[in-house]
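Run log, item B.
One chain of 124 residues. Sequence copied directly from the ordering sheet:
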Amino acid sequence: MTKQVLIVDDDDHLRELVQACLEDLGGWKTLTASSGKEALKITETQPVDAILLDVSMPDMDGFVVFEKLQENTVSQSIPVILLTARVLPSDRDRFARMGIAGVISKPFEPIAISQQVADILGWD
Protein backbone atom coordinates (compact mmCIF):
# COMPACT_ATOMS: atom_id res chain seq x y z
CA MET A 1 0.00 0.00 0.00
CA THR A 2 1.36 3.43 -0.95
CA LYS A 3 2.20 5.73 1.96
CA GLN A 4 0.69 9.22 2.05
CA VAL A 5 2.82 12.05 3.44
CA LEU A 6 1.56 15.50 4.41
CA ILE A 7 4.07 18.28 3.69
CA VAL A 8 3.50 21.43 5.75
CA ASP A 9 5.57 24.50 4.83
CA ASP A 10 4.70 28.13 4.17
CA ASP A 11 7.37 28.35 1.41
CA ASP A 12 5.67 27.41 -1.88
CA HIS A 13 8.90 26.50 -3.69
CA LEU A 14 10.18 24.33 -0.86
CA ARG A 15 6.81 22.57 -0.53
CA GLU A 16 6.77 21.83 -4.27
CA LEU A 17 10.38 20.59 -4.20
CA VAL A 18 9.73 18.22 -1.30
CA GLN A 19 6.50 17.03 -2.94
CA ALA A 20 8.28 16.25 -6.24
CA CYS A 21 11.09 14.40 -4.42
CA LEU A 22 8.77 12.28 -2.26
CA GLU A 23 6.51 11.39 -5.19
CA ASP A 24 9.20 10.81 -7.84
CA LEU A 25 11.95 9.27 -5.70
CA GLY A 26 9.99 7.85 -2.77
CA GLY A 27 7.00 6.69 -4.78
CA TRP A 28 4.60 8.04 -2.16
CA LYS A 29 1.43 10.05 -2.43
CA THR A 30 1.58 13.53 -0.93
CA LEU A 31 -0.76 16.16 0.42
CA THR A 32 0.40 19.71 1.02
CA ALA A 33 -0.52 22.51 3.40
CA SER A 34 0.81 26.05 3.48
CA SER A 35 -0.16 26.63 7.11
CA GLY A 36 -0.64 24.83 10.38
CA LYS A 37 -4.37 25.48 10.30
CA GLU A 38 -4.64 23.89 6.85
CA ALA A 39 -2.56 20.90 8.01
CA LEU A 40 -4.85 20.28 10.99
CA LYS A 41 -7.91 20.31 8.70
CA ILE A 42 -6.26 17.79 6.34
CA THR A 43 -5.42 15.36 9.15
CA GLU A 44 -9.10 15.40 10.16
CA THR A 45 -10.31 14.35 6.71
CA GLN A 46 -7.51 12.44 4.95
CA PRO A 47 -5.50 9.34 5.89
CA VAL A 48 -1.91 10.47 6.55
CA ASP A 49 0.99 8.10 7.26
CA ALA A 50 3.51 10.80 8.18
CA ILE A 51 3.89 14.58 8.37
CA LEU A 52 6.88 16.67 7.31
CA LEU A 53 6.44 19.86 9.32
CA ASP A 54 8.26 23.17 8.95
CA VAL A 55 9.08 24.75 12.30
CA SER A 56 9.20 28.43 11.29
CA MET A 57 5.81 29.46 9.96
CA PRO A 58 3.69 32.58 10.51
CA ASP A 59 0.54 32.43 12.65
CA MET A 60 1.12 28.94 14.04
CA ASP A 61 4.68 27.57 14.23
CA GLY A 62 5.52 23.88 13.91
CA PHE A 63 5.63 23.35 17.68
CA VAL A 64 2.08 24.65 18.13
CA VAL A 65 0.91 22.51 15.20
CA PHE A 66 2.59 19.45 16.75
CA GLU A 67 0.91 20.12 20.12
CA LYS A 68 -2.48 20.40 18.42
CA LEU A 69 -1.85 17.15 16.51
CA GLN A 70 -1.03 15.46 19.84
CA GLU A 71 -4.26 16.73 21.43
CA ASN A 72 -6.40 15.05 18.74
CA THR A 73 -6.95 11.27 18.89
CA VAL A 74 -7.24 11.17 15.08
CA SER A 75 -3.78 12.67 14.50
CA GLN A 76 -1.75 11.90 17.63
CA SER A 77 -0.38 8.63 16.26
CA ILE A 78 0.89 10.16 12.98
CA PRO A 79 4.71 10.36 13.04
CA VAL A 80 6.02 13.91 12.59
CA ILE A 81 9.39 14.82 11.08
CA LEU A 82 10.46 18.43 11.55
CA LEU A 83 11.99 20.37 8.68
CA THR A 84 14.08 23.10 10.25
CA ALA A 85 17.09 25.30 9.70
CA ARG A 86 17.80 25.56 13.43
CA VAL A 87 19.00 22.30 14.89
CA LEU A 88 21.23 22.39 17.94
CA PRO A 89 22.12 19.29 19.97
CA SER A 90 19.85 20.60 22.76
CA ASP A 91 17.01 20.94 20.22
CA ARG A 92 17.40 17.27 19.22
CA ASP A 93 17.02 16.22 22.88
CA ARG A 94 13.94 18.41 23.26
CA PHE A 95 12.39 17.04 20.05
CA ALA A 96 12.99 13.45 21.19
CA ARG A 97 11.29 14.16 24.54
CA MET A 98 8.33 15.71 22.71
CA GLY A 99 7.85 12.57 20.63
CA ILE A 100 9.03 14.00 17.31
CA ALA A 101 9.95 11.08 15.01
CA GLY A 102 12.97 12.88 13.56
CA VAL A 103 14.50 16.04 12.16
CA ILE A 104 15.64 16.91 8.65
CA SER A 105 17.85 19.99 8.55
CA LYS A 106 17.41 22.74 5.98
CA PRO A 107 18.98 23.08 3.55
CA PHE A 108 18.51 19.41 2.71
CA GLU A 109 19.71 17.37 -0.25
CA PRO A 110 16.65 16.98 -2.54
CA ILE A 111 17.69 13.62 -3.96
CA ALA A 112 18.23 12.23 -0.45
CA ILE A 113 15.12 13.48 1.36
CA SER A 114 12.86 10.51 0.55
CA GLN A 115 15.57 8.14 1.85
CA GLN A 116 15.96 10.28 5.00
CA VAL A 117 12.20 10.05 5.61
CA ALA A 118 12.23 6.28 5.01
CA ASP A 119 15.19 5.82 7.38
CA ILE A 120 13.60 7.91 10.16
CA LEU A 121 10.27 6.06 9.91
CA GLY A 122 11.64 2.59 9.21
CA TRP A 123 9.89 2.39 5.83
CA ASP A 124 11.48 0.07 3.26
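Observations after the first pass:
- The helical segments are 12-24, 36-45, 62-71, 89-98, 113-121.
- The first strand starts at residue 4 and ends at 8.
Flagged for discussion on Thursday.
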